[in-house]
Amino acid sequence: MGILVVGTVALDTVQTPFAKVKNILGGSAAYFAVSASFFNKVKLFSIAGKDFPRKFINFLQSRDIDIKGLLIKKGKTFRWSGRYTYDLNSAETIKTELNLLSHFNPHLPLDYQNEKFVFLANIDPHIQLKVLKQLKAPKLVAADTMNYWIEHEKAALKRVIKRSDILILNDSEAREFSQQANLIKAAKFLLTLGPRLIIIKRGEFGCLLSSRTSLFYVPAYLLENVLDPTGAGDTFAGGFLGYLAGCQKVTETVFRKAVVFGTIMASYVVEDFSLNRLERLNKKDIEIRFKDFQQMTRF
Amino acid sequence: MGILVVGTVALDTVQTPFAKVKNILGGSAAYFAVSASFFNKVKLFSIAGKDFPRKFINFLQSRDIDIKGLLIKKGKTFRWSGRYTYDLNSAETIKTELNLLSHFNPHLPLDYQNEKFVFLANIDPHIQLKVLKQLKAPKLVAADTMNYWIEHEKAALKRVIKRSDILILNDSEAREFSQQANLIKAAKFLLTLGPRLIIIKRGEFGCLLSSRTSLFYVPAYLLENVLDPTGAGDTFAGGFLGYLAGCQKVTETVFRKAVVFGTIMASYVVEDFSLNRLERLNKKDIEIRFKDFQQMTRF
Question: Cβ B208–A202 below 8 Å, yes or no?
């Protein structure tokens, strides 16, 4: 089955201790879609301006991503600019320019409304809710968010979470939302809001998958050289949902393998800026690192 | 085969957001010995003063630990006092009183010199070197250290490391020693100093085992309630070496299982102050959590 992703496409400016790059392809939906496209057919729904470079559109299409839902409007594309220090684990946002995103009123194309696997990438929860209303019969909805929405739109966000099967967020967001420093307690709290699965991402420390009856810990795939951690979380979600959507039955075993595929995709994307590393990635690379990771974690 | 540990016994004063406890049993050798005693016979070599409470000696003996080498001298026992905030991952040292430890000149009893498995717990590397010289035919030596010795006694520490099979240290120490922010690079550097195995502990984020030919990642066993993280690293080392010493052959598979047993022991010790949790622990608890952990990490 195919996957629908709703989120942002962006022009990012990223500064790390190693380099500064301007106006590169970014955005939660872009990272997710490219990552998921290694596993399944993806439909992307988002908005961009006339300034969105043709080469980025070509790249998305080269990944066989359906971009009928990528609305190109008069105006400017969403822009994010951020900085990392040597502690590559958390970004400092320098500037966010919503631009066209501030008037984004999603109307999904008909075939988009019928998709079974849906990822609500990080975006205003009111937009996420509008998308949820347009879905005909989703089989599995996963949602992501960020601290800004937790702080400013908690009520709307709670409604999104209630209608989602899986909530994916990072450790600081889980702690902030639940008001619990302890991650197991945070996950337990978030489970009471509706989802049957909580995935807490811990950056270079791996992630934690929690359901009402089980816990799954997975360490990150450590790398010698990380160039740019931007988009790692969405790339993770892309590998996760991409793998899930291709499975006949969604069992605990399948969830776990999906988390590992997410981990592998994230480990690749941070090796270069933007989606550059995924541009030169193939299925075989993914299989190799998956086996590598199995080998590195087995006891 | 039995195990020899050389390190400190201490009277600790520990303050956490939950409680403050005074003059409790602490010290690297004490934590290690009690943890390893669940797996094997342990000989403890250390020094304490007349102020060292009889009940602590009784407890060590109740664990069947050979304390012939615990020298009780006129004077005061080593004391450490520290504080944790809600981020329980790192302690702030309030005060260190070396007391008798500053004149500690180790002379191992004869049967101690013949031990095959040796843990040089965190202590002045000059003492570690003196111990190394007295060993007749060690089969496997593991060494731990701390930032203070890296900063003030690096040359002596390097000689200890050169003669050790395994170096166990935490992430910040590995980074400081190697001058590498990246842990894989840090481990590679440390391997050039002599040991065939480097174990980098990452607190609540698990640990990393690195040899010249393989890597092993293991997440920590997450807990809902951590009361006091003091001694987690030495307790880890105790489970690790305790399990190793009981194995016929020390293979990669055995190393990995040993790391997991170390992880399990550490997960128990932090559930209470001092060694209180291990005092009411049994072999069955260890087996149960080991299986639990297997279940929580398998994919």
Answer: no
- Bridge partner list, A131: none
Q: How far does the CA of residue B211 sit from the closest CA of chain A (Å)? A: 12
- As a whole number, mean pLDDT of residues A265-290 equals 98
pLDDT in tens, B239-282: 999 999 999 999 999 999 999 999 999 999 999 999 999 999 99
User: Which positions in chain A touch B297 (Cβ < 8 Å)?
Assistant: 216-218, 297
- pTM, two decimals, is 0.92
Question: What's the complex ipTM?
Answer: 0.87
| Interchain CB contact of A257 with B (< 8 Å) | yes
Burial A127-156 (b: 16+ CB within 10 A, else e): bbebbbeebeebebbbbbbbeebbeebeeb
Of A86, A182, A223, the CB nearest to B181: A86
CA B177 to chain centre: 18
Residue type, B40: N
Number of domains present in the structure of chain B: 1
Strand (E) positions, chain B? 3-6, 10-15, 20-26, 42-49, 66-73, 79-83, 92-97, 117-120, 140-144, 166-170, 197-201, 207-210, 215-218
Q: How far apart are CA A48 and CA B273, in angstroms?
A: 56
Scanning A219-248 for CB atoms below 8 A from B yields 219-220, 222-226
Q: Is A251 on the interface with B (CB under 8 A)?
A: no
Name the B residues in 84-143 with CB < 8 Å from any A CB. 86
The CATH number linked to B221 is 3.40.1190.20
The model's pLDDT over A21-35, given as tens digits with 9 standing for 90+, comes to 999 999 999 999 999
pLDDT digits (tens, 9 = 90+) for A171-192: 999 999 999 989 999 999 999 9
Q: Which domain holds residue A122?
A: 3-85+93-292
* Inter-chain residue contact B219 with A218, CB threshold 8 Å: yes
